[in-house]
Amino acid sequence: MTSAVDAVDTEDTIDVVVVGAGPTGLLLAGDLAAAGLSVTLVERRPRTAANLTRAFAVHARTLELLDARGLADALLSTGRRIDRVRPFGGMALSLQRLSTRYPFVLITPQYETEKLLERRALSTGVDIRYDCELIGLSQDRDTVTLDLRTSNGTSTGTRTRTTLHARHAIGADGVRSTVRTALGLPFPGQAVVRSMILADVRLTRPPEDLLAVNGNADAFGFLVPFGDGWYRAIGWHRDGRAQDTDPVGLDELRAILHTALGTDHGMHDPRWISRFHSDERQVPHYRSGRVFLAGDAAHVHSPAGGLGMNTGLQDAANLSWKLAAVLHGRTPDPEALLDSYHRERHPVGRLVLRISGAVVRAVMATGPVRRTARGLGAAVLPRIGPARDRALGLVSGIGISYPPPPGTRRPAGRRAPDLALEPGPHGQRLYEALRSGGFVLVTPPGRATPPGAPLTHVHWRTGRRTTRSARARAARTARTACVLVRPDGYVAWSAPRATDAELAAAVAAWLLPAATPGRTAGPAQKA
Length: 527
Fold this sequence. Notes:
The protein is an alpha+beta fold and about 525 residues long. The chain is about 30% helix and about 25% strand.
């Protein structure tokens, strides 16, 4: 039955429309609204429809970004922590080596992350519209126009058509992104794994290790606990040829895990079970004029490593502060700042595709030579310090960095560690100070704040209150007296010594004075 459509309603221009209320879209919307912008978030699913929980791993860098928003502790209470992994039966790889407040992987269902981010988005004033479908998008030099179709909630099935006008729009609407399609952007890539099965199950005989994973010549199996009695199970068999839409039963998954792990651990009572395939794809441009793509709308890869949701959330953290700075007229070069989203995040997306692809190909290794090489790598990697630490840094996100901006040098572009600060109204460590939502300037005590700078100014912790680990972290990572940290927790600028004039110039390269009137978004550029 065809739904009736009412007359078109047109609403006033708003600052940003975000399409897609998964984790990436929710974080973006919440950040932008917290920055004082008007934000509408539209989601095709009805409010009561749960999103499919394919993601379950929250890595260290993502937890740091949530900490910078005061959200990490709440999420930690929903799951379990894994501080070591044993790839393909090799030696245990300890995550405790990570130099972070969160040296582990948090295992929690995606819906817990979404619930937390939704509460925050609503508290900051985001207008969330569920059961609202994007059916058209266009843009000109000044505005993005979005045509939406929304259910009126009645039994007649009538749907209302609405037109929104926004200064910018963001597509965070997943692999089948309507925004990406409307922009006419390709999504090149290929399917790498077919007929994989996911399920949430209970076990009568839980594995001894918190994480059970193994692959052999015929199959791959994976089990990880959510902490509430449920386990995420993933299975793939080399001979699988079923389509995503073909029926799937628990017996098929049991057989695959028995082949891969030697037992199905008494798997029973699935609360859901699904068959899917995994692609490796990436859009060539993350920006097209006034429209941006983030998360799975921009890049998609296998679930290996649990990197998908984390990469999307880090896209969101990179884009939100830049868009807010431009719309508030607080950046000296709006176009360069907006372009830097693609310049910084596209290489990261490409790197994640390579990492997850390498893991998948190791899992799918055929022949005795390749399987022997995989087992040897799993045994040797934990013994080679530099290779081990780089692998941990990339997967956790802690080791991800951006090119230093022109005219700067390292550590600019690198992640800022959680520096110890003199206690004050903004907390006692850097990621507490970042909860202000803006830039943070760290200097020795006694330095004056650059006049008119819209930032949070804090001081290094000194004296006996500084722990040995905090001093070592500061010396090892910063080795500097003045550090300007971006809202996403990356170093913008640093210097071992700086005069007041040099400090003011460094801040002015990123920020216009808060008193600058009006808003500007600069001219839109085509990708």
